[in-house]
Design a protein that fits this description.
The protein is α+β, with helices and mostly antiparallel strands. The protein is 35% helix and 26% strand. It has four helices and five strands, in the order βαβαβαββα. It has a five-stranded mixed beta sheet, with helices on one face. β4 and β5 form a beta hairpin. The longest helix has 16 residues. The protein is globular, with a radius of gyration of 12 Å. The chain starts with a strand and ends with a helix.
């Protein structure tokens, strides 16, 4: 998993995600249909959101959301963006994350 810092003030809202933002943070996952690491990432992020109150997981199919993929410069799946409570992108990770890394990033944020 490769983690990057702030994404230049990019902000996303519930209308773009198709779901509401988390009270404390949102884990936005871009996936593709035949991506095995995407399924494993889904499991990890679902576990973490079950452990950390106020954090939600939203998964988007990259092919179905090409406008966002281009806008956010998503180059591979899985890519996970961590959004703060206001929908600002504060972290970005590519590849399958480890649960401990996701929890650490959320600990810094919330």
């Amino acid at each position: 998993m490769c983690v990057r810092g702030r994404d230049g003030g990019v902000r996303l809202g519930a209308a773009e995600l198709g779901e509401g933002l988390g009270e404390r943070a949102t884990l936005l996952q871009f996936s593709s249909a035949f991506c095995a690491p995407c399924r494993a990432t889904r499991r990890v992020l679902t576990e973490v959101t079950g452990m950390v109150p106020g954090v939600v997981h939203v998964e988007l199919d990259a092919e179905a959301h090409l406008d966002l993929v281009r806008r956010l410069d998503i180059l591979r799946t899985p890519t996970v963006l961590v959004l703060d409570a206001d929908g600002r992108v504060v972290r970005r990770a590519t590849g399958q994350p480890r649960k401990a890394d996701v929890i650490a990033v959320l600990g810094d944020l919330v």
